[in-house]
């Protein structure tokens, strides 16, 4: 006993037209309304105004680097990186001298380019870099790389972008 209906002979496209359509739940994005002002940007002074002073030409590279990455900034990176590691349930023991070594390796990797980051720690003569291997172990470098942070995510909500100025860092 087969049940046939008259709709069996109707093409699917025609049958679909006769079905009631469901209203779609459309989520409208909130549009940001900006109020643009036609004026010059305010000039703010920074801690680095003396960096381009001709008297600083006799400074060595480490002294110039220290003007940009001073102890306050390094401590901020250490604090926020340890906090981020704790949020991810990881052991948080990043220290300031390790952050300085980490930044040094990043700078050096801009000069000595290798196909893979791990080549610096390999034992082959053509890739091994003694300076890098002495500063940080490969695993320690990758641990810091996966946890380095300069802002607390909990203060800005999930997925919120943060733009930090150096003045904000010093607070």
Concise account of the structure shown:
By secondary structure, this protein is an all-alpha fold. The chain contains seven helices and no strands.
What share of the residues does DSSP label as strand, in percent? under 5%
The rough form would be described as: elongated
Unreliable parts: 159-171
Helix content: 40-55%
Radius of gyration: 29 Å
Q: Between the first and last Cα atoms, what is the distance in angstroms?
A: 82 Å
The structural class is mainly alpha
- The sequence of SSEs as H and E is HHHHHHH
Helix tally equals 7
Instruction: Report on the biggest sheet.
Output: none
Which whole number gives the mean pLDDT? 79
- Quick one: how many beta strands? 0
Domain PiggyBac transposable element-derived protein: 60-155
GO molecular function: sequence-specific DNA binding
Protein name: PiggyBac transposable element-derived protein domain-containing protein
InterPro entries: PGBD, PiggyBac_TE-derived
List the helices and strands and how they pair.
Blueprint: H1 12-18, H2 61-68, H3 71-87, H4 96-111, H5 130-135, H6 138-147, H7 166-170
Domain PiggyBac transposable element-derived protein: 60-155
Protein name: PiggyBac transposable element-derived protein domain-containing protein
GO molecular function, one term: sequence-specific DNA binding
How does this structure look, described?
By secondary structure, the protein is mainly alpha-helical. The chain is built from seven helices and no strands. The longest helix is centred in the middle third of the chain and has 17 residues, at about 70-85. It is elongated. It starts with 11 loop residues before the first helix and ends with a helix.
């Amino acid at each position: 006993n087969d049940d046939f209906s008259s709709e069996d002979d109707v093409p699917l496209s025609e049958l679909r037209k006769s079905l009631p359509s469901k209203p779609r739940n459309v989520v409208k994005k909130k549009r940001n309304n900006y109020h643009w002002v036609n004026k010059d940007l305010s000039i703010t002074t920074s801690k680095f105004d003396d960096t381009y002073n001709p008297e600083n030409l006799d400074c060595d590279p480490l002294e110039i680097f220290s003007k940009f990455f001073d102890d306050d900034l390094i401590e901020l990176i250490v604090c926020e990186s340890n906090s981020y590691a704790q949020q991810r349930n990881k052991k948080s023991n990043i220290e300031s001298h390790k952050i300085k070594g980490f930044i040094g390796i990043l700078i050096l990797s801009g000069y000595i380019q290798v196909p893979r980051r791990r080549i610096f720690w390999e034992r082959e003569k053509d890739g091994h870099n003694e300076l890098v291997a002495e500063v940080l172990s490969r695993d320690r470098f990758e641990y810091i790389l996966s946890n380095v942070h300069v802002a607390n995510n909990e203060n800005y909500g999930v997925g919120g972008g943060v733009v930090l100025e150096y003045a904000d860092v010093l607070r």
